[in-house]
Write a structure and sequence with these properties.
Blueprint (H helix, E strand, L loop, with lengths): L3 E4 L2 E4 L4 E7 L8 E7 L6 E6 L6 E3 L7 E6 L4 E6 L8 E8 L11 E2 L3 E6 L1
Parallel strand pairs: 2-11
Antiparallel strand pairs: 1-3, 3-8, 4-5, 4-9, 5-6, 7-8, 9-10, 9-11
């Protein structure tokens, strides 16, 4: 069982930067590929970014490419999402997730955190 806890969300203004963290309570964290997703009320959860277990492969949604960066520190069992040039449309609950494969679809992820709210005002 993998437990994931996100942190770092908050109320921001357009153009600000914010870094989300996701801590995993498992010693085998480095075996999992990790992803970030986000969801707004009434909409399906959408893919934001993913990173392979080694950090050597990353994927991004087109909407965040060039603004967001996913990274991980296996020694700390933590994955990060650096978000720059925030826009109001980035407002959502952000979730991290763990998977045995590198994927962009939600169905591929086995473990999920509880989410952290990011609100960006214009």
């Amino acid at each position: 069982q993998v437990q994931l806890v996100e942190s770092g969300g908050g109320l921001m203004q357009a153009g600000d930067s914010l870094r989300l963290s996701c801590a995993a309570s498992v010693g085998t964290f480095s075996r999992y590929h990790m992803g970030w997703f986000r969801q707004t009320p009434g909409k399906e959860r959408e893919f934001v970014a993913a990173i392979s277990w080694s950090g050597g492969i990353t994927y991004y949604a087109d909407s965040v490419k060039g603004r967001f960066t996913i990274s991980r520190m296996n020694a700390k069992n933590t994955v990060y999402l650096q978000m720059n040039s925030l826009k109001p449309e980035d407002t959502a609950v952000y979730y991290c997730a763990a998977s045995s494969i590198v994927a962009t679809r939600t169905s591929a992820y086995e473990y999920w955190g509880q989410g952290t709210q990011v609100t960006v005002s214009s």
